[in-house]
Amino acid sequence: MNRFTIPVVAVSICAALVLAVSTLTAEPVKEPAPVVELEKEPVPETPVAPKPPVDEAKAKLVLAALAIADNDLETGFKRAQEGLQFHTKKNYMDAGWKYVEAIRHNPADSTSVYNLACAMSLMGEEDAAAKCLDLSIRLGFRDYDHILKDPDFDPVRKTETFKTLFANLETFRERRGGVTGKDHVMASGIFLRYRVITPVGYDGVTPYPVVLALHGLGGNLESFSVVTHALKEAGAIVVVPNAPYAIAAADDVIGYSWWIGAPNQEEEKAPRTLVQSMAASRHHVEKVMEEVIGSYAIDPKRTYVMGFSQGAFMAYSAGLSGKNIFSGVLVAGGWLPPIITDRSLEASKKVKCFVAHGADDKPVPFEKAQEALTRLTEAGLNVSFRKYKAGHELNEKMLKDMADWIRKN
Q: Cα separation of 278 and 316, whole Å?
Protein backbone atom coordinates (compact mmCIF):
# COMPACT_ATOMS: atom_id res chain seq x y z
CA MET A 1 0.00 0.00 0.00
CA ASN A 2 1.25 3.45 -0.83
CA ARG A 3 1.91 5.41 2.35
CA PHE A 4 -0.03 8.37 0.94
CA THR A 5 -3.29 6.38 0.55
CA ILE A 6 -6.06 6.82 3.26
CA PRO A 7 -8.10 3.63 3.87
CA VAL A 8 -11.67 3.78 2.55
CA VAL A 9 -13.16 2.75 5.93
CA ALA A 10 -11.44 5.64 7.65
CA VAL A 11 -12.88 8.05 5.12
CA SER A 12 -16.41 6.71 5.73
CA ILE A 13 -16.08 7.06 9.53
CA CYS A 14 -14.78 10.63 9.20
CA ALA A 15 -17.66 11.54 6.92
CA ALA A 16 -20.22 10.14 9.37
CA LEU A 17 -18.70 12.10 12.26
CA VAL A 18 -18.78 15.33 10.28
CA LEU A 19 -22.46 14.77 9.40
CA ALA A 20 -23.39 14.08 13.04
CA VAL A 21 -21.67 17.20 14.32
CA SER A 22 -23.30 19.30 11.59
CA THR A 23 -26.73 18.01 12.59
CA LEU A 24 -26.23 18.88 16.29
CA THR A 25 -24.96 22.40 15.68
CA ALA A 26 -27.24 23.44 12.80
CA GLU A 27 -29.91 26.16 13.20
CA PRO A 28 -33.61 25.15 13.17
CA VAL A 29 -34.92 24.47 9.69
CA LYS A 30 -37.06 27.30 8.27
CA GLU A 31 -40.05 26.89 5.98
CA PRO A 32 -38.96 27.35 2.40
CA ALA A 33 -40.16 30.52 0.60
CA PRO A 34 -42.74 29.98 -2.12
CA VAL A 35 -41.20 29.46 -5.53
CA VAL A 36 -42.29 31.89 -8.24
CA GLU A 37 -42.05 30.49 -11.74
CA LEU A 38 -40.47 32.99 -14.14
CA GLU A 39 -40.38 32.78 -17.85
CA LYS A 40 -36.92 31.79 -18.92
CA GLU A 41 -35.14 33.53 -21.76
CA PRO A 42 -34.28 31.06 -24.47
CA VAL A 43 -30.59 30.12 -24.25
CA PRO A 44 -28.94 30.64 -27.61
CA GLU A 45 -27.23 27.54 -28.96
CA THR A 46 -23.44 27.64 -29.01
CA PRO A 47 -22.40 27.72 -32.63
CA VAL A 48 -20.36 24.69 -33.71
CA ALA A 49 -17.17 25.61 -35.52
CA PRO A 50 -17.30 24.24 -39.03
CA LYS A 51 -14.75 21.57 -39.90
CA PRO A 52 -11.91 22.88 -42.02
CA PRO A 53 -12.20 22.11 -45.70
CA VAL A 54 -10.59 18.89 -46.80
CA ASP A 55 -7.84 20.78 -48.66
CA GLU A 56 -6.92 22.78 -45.54
CA ALA A 57 -6.79 19.65 -43.38
CA LYS A 58 -4.65 17.95 -46.01
CA ALA A 59 -2.28 20.92 -46.11
CA LYS A 60 -1.81 20.72 -42.33
CA LEU A 61 -1.11 17.00 -42.55
CA VAL A 62 1.44 17.57 -45.32
CA LEU A 63 3.21 20.21 -43.21
CA ALA A 64 3.31 17.84 -40.25
CA ALA A 65 4.69 15.05 -42.44
CA LEU A 66 7.36 17.35 -43.87
CA ALA A 67 8.37 18.47 -40.37
CA ILE A 68 8.92 14.83 -39.41
CA ALA A 69 10.74 14.00 -42.62
CA ASP A 70 12.98 17.08 -42.53
CA ASN A 71 15.84 15.29 -40.82
CA ASP A 72 19.37 16.51 -41.54
CA LEU A 73 21.25 13.19 -41.58
CA GLU A 74 24.59 14.83 -42.30
CA THR A 75 24.29 17.12 -39.27
CA GLY A 76 23.13 14.13 -37.24
CA PHE A 77 26.28 12.23 -38.20
CA LYS A 78 28.48 15.20 -37.27
CA ARG A 79 26.84 15.54 -33.85
CA ALA A 80 27.25 11.79 -33.25
CA GLN A 81 30.97 12.06 -34.06
CA GLU A 82 31.32 15.08 -31.77
CA GLY A 83 29.61 13.03 -29.05
CA LEU A 84 32.17 10.25 -29.49
CA GLN A 85 35.00 12.74 -29.13
CA PHE A 86 33.59 14.03 -25.82
CA HIS A 87 32.96 10.41 -24.79
CA THR A 88 36.61 9.52 -25.41
CA LYS A 89 37.66 12.47 -23.23
CA LYS A 90 35.31 11.20 -20.47
CA ASN A 91 33.18 14.33 -20.75
CA TYR A 92 29.93 12.39 -20.58
CA MET A 93 27.68 15.41 -20.04
CA ASP A 94 28.67 17.09 -23.31
CA ALA A 95 28.76 13.70 -25.04
CA GLY A 96 25.17 13.08 -23.95
CA TRP A 97 23.98 16.41 -25.33
CA LYS A 98 25.66 15.73 -28.68
CA TYR A 99 24.00 12.31 -28.86
CA VAL A 100 20.63 13.93 -28.11
CA GLU A 101 21.18 16.39 -30.97
CA ALA A 102 22.19 13.56 -33.29
CA ILE A 103 19.02 11.64 -32.44
CA ARG A 104 16.89 14.72 -33.02
CA HIS A 105 18.26 14.92 -36.56
CA ASN A 106 17.98 11.15 -37.08
CA PRO A 107 15.45 9.51 -34.71
CA ALA A 108 16.28 6.06 -36.13
CA ASP A 109 19.97 6.32 -35.14
CA SER A 110 20.12 3.30 -32.86
CA THR A 111 23.87 3.67 -32.33
CA SER A 112 23.56 7.21 -30.94
CA VAL A 113 20.73 6.06 -28.66
CA TYR A 114 22.99 3.24 -27.46
CA ASN A 115 25.88 5.66 -26.88
CA LEU A 116 23.50 7.91 -24.94
CA ALA A 117 22.67 4.91 -22.73
CA CYS A 118 26.40 4.44 -22.13
CA ALA A 119 26.83 8.10 -21.20
CA MET A 120 23.89 7.90 -18.78
CA SER A 121 25.42 4.79 -17.18
CA LEU A 122 28.81 6.44 -16.76
CA MET A 123 27.06 9.36 -15.07
CA GLY A 124 25.35 6.95 -12.66
CA GLU A 125 21.87 7.49 -14.10
CA GLU A 126 20.57 3.92 -13.91
CA ASP A 127 16.95 4.51 -15.00
CA ALA A 128 17.84 6.73 -17.98
CA ALA A 129 20.58 4.28 -19.04
CA ALA A 130 18.16 1.33 -18.94
CA LYS A 131 15.45 3.13 -20.91
CA CYS A 132 17.89 4.38 -23.57
CA LEU A 133 19.44 0.91 -23.90
CA ASP A 134 16.00 -0.65 -24.29
CA LEU A 135 15.08 1.91 -26.95
CA SER A 136 18.34 1.34 -28.86
CA ILE A 137 17.61 -2.40 -29.02
CA ARG A 138 14.04 -1.78 -30.21
CA LEU A 139 15.43 0.56 -32.89
CA GLY A 140 17.71 -2.20 -34.13
CA PHE A 141 20.97 -2.20 -32.15
CA ARG A 142 21.40 -5.96 -31.79
CA ASP A 143 25.08 -6.57 -31.04
CA TYR A 144 24.26 -8.47 -27.85
CA ASP A 145 27.81 -9.68 -27.24
CA HIS A 146 29.06 -6.09 -27.28
CA ILE A 147 26.24 -4.86 -25.03
CA LEU A 148 26.81 -7.56 -22.41
CA LYS A 149 30.58 -6.94 -22.25
CA ASP A 150 30.59 -3.15 -22.66
CA PRO A 151 32.54 -1.65 -19.69
CA ASP A 152 30.48 1.54 -20.01
CA PHE A 153 27.70 -0.31 -18.16
CA ASP A 154 29.94 -1.35 -15.24
CA PRO A 155 28.64 1.48 -12.99
CA VAL A 156 25.09 0.08 -13.20
CA ARG A 157 25.73 -3.58 -14.03
CA LYS A 158 25.02 -4.87 -10.51
CA THR A 159 21.74 -3.00 -10.04
CA GLU A 160 18.55 -5.06 -10.07
CA THR A 161 17.31 -3.26 -13.21
CA PHE A 162 20.40 -4.17 -15.23
CA LYS A 163 20.69 -7.66 -13.79
CA THR A 164 17.21 -8.37 -15.12
CA LEU A 165 17.88 -6.58 -18.44
CA PHE A 166 21.13 -8.43 -19.08
CA ALA A 167 19.63 -11.78 -18.04
CA ASN A 168 16.91 -11.26 -20.66
CA LEU A 169 19.52 -10.35 -23.27
CA GLU A 170 21.52 -13.50 -22.47
CA THR A 171 18.40 -15.63 -22.96
CA PHE A 172 17.48 -13.90 -26.19
CA ARG A 173 21.00 -14.21 -27.55
CA GLU A 174 20.97 -17.96 -26.93
CA ARG A 175 17.58 -18.35 -28.63
CA ARG A 176 18.73 -16.22 -31.55
CA GLY A 177 21.67 -18.52 -32.23
CA GLY A 178 19.56 -20.57 -34.64
CA VAL A 179 20.68 -23.73 -36.37
CA THR A 180 24.41 -24.38 -36.38
CA GLY A 181 26.36 -26.14 -39.07
CA LYS A 182 29.56 -25.98 -41.08
CA ASP A 183 29.79 -23.05 -43.49
CA HIS A 184 31.58 -23.37 -46.83
CA VAL A 185 32.94 -20.74 -49.21
CA MET A 186 33.39 -20.99 -52.96
CA ALA A 187 34.75 -18.60 -55.58
CA SER A 188 32.14 -17.33 -58.02
CA GLY A 189 31.69 -14.41 -60.41
CA ILE A 190 29.36 -11.79 -58.91
CA PHE A 191 28.12 -8.26 -59.60
CA LEU A 192 28.86 -5.64 -56.95
CA ARG A 193 27.44 -2.15 -56.42
CA TYR A 194 29.35 1.10 -56.12
CA ARG A 195 28.20 4.72 -55.96
CA VAL A 196 29.73 7.71 -57.77
CA ILE A 197 29.25 11.16 -56.19
CA THR A 198 30.23 14.01 -58.51
CA PRO A 199 31.05 17.52 -57.25
CA VAL A 200 29.03 20.61 -58.14
CA GLY A 201 30.10 21.85 -61.56
CA TYR A 202 31.13 18.47 -62.97
CA ASP A 203 30.48 18.65 -66.72
CA GLY A 204 31.81 15.32 -67.94
CA VAL A 205 34.58 17.04 -69.92
CA THR A 206 36.90 18.78 -67.47
CA PRO A 207 39.16 16.23 -65.71
CA TYR A 208 38.61 15.86 -61.96
CA PRO A 209 40.52 14.05 -59.21
CA VAL A 210 38.86 10.88 -57.97
CA VAL A 211 38.76 9.29 -54.51
CA LEU A 212 37.82 5.62 -54.11
CA ALA A 213 36.51 5.43 -50.50
CA LEU A 214 36.53 2.02 -48.75
CA HIS A 215 34.30 1.50 -45.70
CA GLY A 216 35.23 -0.43 -42.55
CA LEU A 217 34.06 -3.83 -41.32
CA GLY A 218 30.26 -3.97 -41.24
CA GLY A 219 29.86 -0.78 -43.26
CA ASN A 220 28.18 -0.31 -46.61
CA LEU A 221 28.04 2.23 -49.41
CA GLU A 222 24.91 3.87 -47.95
CA SER A 223 26.44 4.74 -44.58
CA PHE A 224 29.90 5.51 -45.95
CA SER A 225 28.51 7.81 -48.65
CA VAL A 226 27.09 10.02 -45.88
CA VAL A 227 30.55 10.15 -44.29
CA THR A 228 32.80 10.60 -47.30
CA HIS A 229 30.72 12.86 -49.52
CA ALA A 230 32.45 15.64 -47.53
CA LEU A 231 35.50 14.89 -49.69
CA LYS A 232 33.63 16.63 -52.51
CA GLU A 233 34.88 19.81 -50.81
CA ALA A 234 38.23 18.90 -52.34
CA GLY A 235 36.64 19.19 -55.78
CA ALA A 236 36.90 15.44 -56.27
CA ILE A 237 34.65 12.70 -57.58
CA VAL A 238 33.98 10.28 -54.71
CA VAL A 239 33.41 6.59 -55.46
CA VAL A 240 32.04 4.34 -52.69
CA PRO A 241 31.86 0.58 -53.36
CA ASN A 242 30.36 -2.14 -51.19
CA ALA A 243 32.86 -4.72 -50.00
CA PRO A 244 32.14 -8.16 -51.50
CA TYR A 245 31.21 -10.22 -48.42
CA ALA A 246 27.89 -9.66 -46.62
CA ILE A 247 27.80 -9.96 -42.83
CA ALA A 248 25.29 -9.22 -40.05
CA ALA A 249 25.97 -5.68 -38.84
CA ALA A 250 25.37 -4.37 -35.31
CA ASP A 251 22.00 -2.77 -36.02
CA ASP A 252 20.59 -5.68 -38.07
CA VAL A 253 21.18 -3.99 -41.42
CA ILE A 254 23.29 -5.70 -44.05
CA GLY A 255 26.97 -4.83 -43.64
CA TYR A 256 29.99 -5.95 -45.63
CA SER A 257 33.56 -7.14 -45.11
CA TRP A 258 36.60 -6.96 -47.37
CA TRP A 259 37.56 -10.54 -46.50
CA ILE A 260 36.33 -13.76 -44.93
CA GLY A 261 37.91 -14.72 -41.62
CA ALA A 262 39.51 -13.07 -38.59
CA PRO A 263 40.42 -9.48 -39.52
CA ASN A 264 43.54 -9.27 -37.35
CA GLN A 265 45.43 -12.38 -38.43
CA GLU A 266 48.83 -12.04 -40.01
CA GLU A 267 48.23 -12.74 -43.64
CA GLU A 268 51.13 -15.12 -44.22
CA LYS A 269 49.81 -17.35 -41.40
CA ALA A 270 46.15 -16.98 -42.31
CA PRO A 271 43.83 -19.67 -43.72
CA ARG A 272 43.60 -19.97 -47.49
CA THR A 273 40.05 -18.59 -47.58
CA LEU A 274 41.16 -15.41 -45.82
CA VAL A 275 44.11 -14.85 -48.15
CA GLN A 276 42.12 -15.60 -51.30
CA SER A 277 39.19 -13.39 -50.26
CA MET A 278 41.61 -10.51 -49.60
CA ALA A 279 43.18 -10.96 -53.02
CA ALA A 280 39.73 -11.01 -54.66
CA SER A 281 38.83 -7.76 -52.90
CA ARG A 282 42.04 -6.07 -54.06
CA HIS A 283 41.21 -7.10 -57.60
CA HIS A 284 37.67 -5.75 -57.14
CA VAL A 285 38.97 -2.37 -55.93
CA GLU A 286 41.32 -2.12 -58.92
CA LYS A 287 38.52 -3.03 -61.37
CA VAL A 288 36.18 -0.40 -59.89
CA MET A 289 38.82 2.30 -60.38
CA GLU A 290 39.52 1.15 -63.92
CA GLU A 291 35.82 1.29 -64.77
CA VAL A 292 35.38 4.76 -63.23
CA ILE A 293 38.41 6.10 -65.13
CA GLY A 294 36.90 4.75 -68.33
CA SER A 295 33.45 6.25 -67.65
CA TYR A 296 34.16 9.67 -66.12
CA ALA A 297 36.43 12.64 -66.84
CA ILE A 298 39.31 11.82 -64.49
CA ASP A 299 42.70 13.47 -63.99
CA PRO A 300 45.03 10.43 -64.31
CA LYS A 301 47.64 12.10 -62.09
CA ARG A 302 45.18 12.53 -59.21
CA THR A 303 43.67 9.15 -58.41
CA TYR A 304 43.34 8.32 -54.73
CA VAL A 305 42.22 5.36 -52.64
CA MET A 306 41.02 6.11 -49.13
CA GLY A 307 39.87 3.77 -46.35
CA PHE A 308 38.83 3.55 -42.73
CA SER A 309 39.75 0.65 -40.42
CA GLN A 310 39.42 -2.56 -42.46
CA GLY A 311 38.98 -0.32 -45.49
CA ALA A 312 42.32 1.33 -44.63
CA PHE A 313 43.98 -2.10 -44.72
CA MET A 314 42.50 -2.60 -48.18
CA ALA A 315 43.51 0.92 -49.30
CA TYR A 316 47.11 0.14 -48.39
CA SER A 317 46.86 -3.22 -50.21
CA ALA A 318 45.53 -1.74 -53.44
CA GLY A 319 47.42 1.55 -53.35
CA LEU A 320 50.86 0.16 -52.55
CA SER A 321 50.79 -3.00 -54.67
CA GLY A 322 53.37 -1.61 -57.09
CA LYS A 323 50.86 -1.35 -59.96
CA ASN A 324 50.63 2.45 -59.53
CA ILE A 325 46.92 2.60 -60.31
CA PHE A 326 46.62 5.23 -57.57
CA SER A 327 48.69 8.36 -57.07
CA GLY A 328 47.77 8.68 -53.40
CA VAL A 329 46.65 6.61 -50.39
CA LEU A 330 44.67 8.07 -47.47
CA VAL A 331 43.97 5.97 -44.38
CA ALA A 332 42.34 6.44 -40.96
CA GLY A 333 42.36 3.92 -38.11
CA GLY A 334 44.18 1.31 -40.18
CA TRP A 335 47.29 -0.87 -40.24
CA LEU A 336 49.78 -1.82 -42.93
CA PRO A 337 49.17 -5.34 -44.35
CA PRO A 338 51.98 -7.87 -44.01
CA ILE A 339 51.54 -8.72 -47.69
CA ILE A 340 53.06 -5.36 -48.67
CA THR A 341 56.62 -6.37 -49.48
CA ASP A 342 59.71 -4.19 -49.69
CA ARG A 343 59.64 -4.78 -53.43
CA SER A 344 56.06 -3.46 -53.63
CA LEU A 345 57.02 -0.36 -51.65
CA GLU A 346 60.06 0.21 -53.87
CA ALA A 347 57.74 0.15 -56.91
CA SER A 348 55.31 2.53 -55.16
CA LYS A 349 57.74 5.33 -54.26
CA LYS A 350 55.79 7.89 -56.28
CA VAL A 351 52.60 7.21 -54.30
CA LYS A 352 51.95 9.85 -51.62
CA CYS A 353 50.32 8.85 -48.34
CA PHE A 354 48.14 10.55 -45.72
CA VAL A 355 47.89 8.64 -42.43
CA ALA A 356 45.36 9.70 -39.76
CA HIS A 357 44.95 7.91 -36.42
CA GLY A 358 43.28 8.48 -33.07
CA ALA A 359 45.58 8.51 -30.04
CA ASP A 360 42.93 6.61 -28.04
CA ASP A 361 42.12 4.03 -30.72
CA LYS A 362 41.55 0.68 -28.97
CA PRO A 363 40.64 -1.74 -31.83
CA VAL A 364 43.67 -0.59 -33.85
CA PRO A 365 46.21 0.82 -31.37
CA PHE A 366 48.09 4.00 -32.28
CA GLU A 367 51.32 1.98 -32.37
CA LYS A 368 50.09 0.30 -35.56
CA ALA A 369 50.01 3.68 -37.31
CA GLN A 370 53.50 4.47 -36.03
CA GLU A 371 54.77 1.14 -37.36
CA ALA A 372 53.28 1.95 -40.77
CA LEU A 373 54.85 5.42 -40.72
CA THR A 374 58.29 3.98 -39.94
CA ARG A 375 58.14 1.39 -42.68
CA LEU A 376 56.77 3.76 -45.33
CA THR A 377 59.29 6.52 -44.65
CA GLU A 378 62.18 4.06 -44.56
CA ALA A 379 61.06 2.86 -48.00
CA GLY A 380 61.29 6.45 -49.26
CA LEU A 381 57.58 7.29 -49.57
CA ASN A 382 56.22 10.78 -48.96
CA VAL A 383 53.97 10.49 -45.86
CA SER A 384 51.81 13.10 -44.10
CA PHE A 385 51.12 11.77 -40.59
CA ARG A 386 48.41 13.19 -38.30
CA LYS A 387 47.62 12.25 -34.71
CA TYR A 388 44.16 13.13 -33.34
CA LYS A 389 42.57 13.25 -29.91
CA ALA A 390 40.10 10.55 -30.93
CA GLY A 391 39.27 6.88 -30.69
CA HIS A 392 38.61 4.42 -33.51
CA GLU A 393 36.74 6.82 -35.76
CA LEU A 394 36.73 8.85 -38.94
CA ASN A 395 35.61 12.25 -37.74
CA GLU A 396 34.87 15.61 -39.32
CA LYS A 397 38.34 17.00 -38.59
CA MET A 398 40.04 14.02 -40.24
CA LEU A 399 37.86 14.36 -43.33
CA LYS A 400 38.58 18.09 -43.55
CA ASP A 401 42.32 17.45 -43.33
CA MET A 402 42.03 14.76 -45.99
CA ALA A 403 40.15 17.14 -48.30
CA ASP A 404 42.83 19.82 -47.76
CA TRP A 405 45.56 17.27 -48.51
CA ILE A 406 43.84 16.17 -51.73
CA ARG A 407 43.55 19.79 -52.89
CA LYS A 408 47.29 20.26 -52.41
CA ASN A 409 48.33 16.96 -53.95
A: 12
